[in-house]
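input
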Amino acid sequence: MRKSITVAGLGVLAVLLMAGCSDSSSTPVAKNAPEPSTVSAATPETITGKSAFWPMYKAAHNWAPDIVLIRLTAKPLPGFKNEAGKAPLWEAAFGSPSLHQYRIFTNSIATVPPAVFKGVTGGLAMPWGGETRDAMAIDLTQFNVDSDAAYQTGAGLAGDWLKKNPGKQLASLEVGETYRFQGPVWYLQWGDKKAGYSALIDANSGKNLNRK
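output
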């Protein structure tokens, strides 16, 4: 029986907001004084799967200490592009064997109303019957290859197909574990399953698992 990895309790960061008040006796500002410069917020950068995963894991661990990761998936977000193994939104499915429940957590780099909020968000707990042959708990000790590295390997394998099918975007990028492999595997899909190219990358070693 695999044991889930535990983490220490999270600290709470208190932010104090201070508001200044004006004084009518203060020295007036010169009429020709320059306007304060305004700096626009930089566009947030997309992130890798492992970067998005750990904050979700910590939040899920507060829900149930015995959580196991079932699936980690890159998701699209309006206004951003999923490129080179990075995404603006990641979704993780966690299961709790003791509670017989699972929850979906998301980690987004931006808020996109009405449903997506920046940072980590946890969904409702749902009934869970436990692991299956096709949806096993991911062994986190073997989750060593990040999504950008998996993408580089997968894109190399798909090179010839992509040349013949220009413009085809990566449709799926996720990591999971099934009975068919010895550990977690990154799954990449360009196009669709009927007329596309898929790649399987070992999430522990980074090796190509596609059948020859």
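quick obs: Residues 49-202 form one domain.
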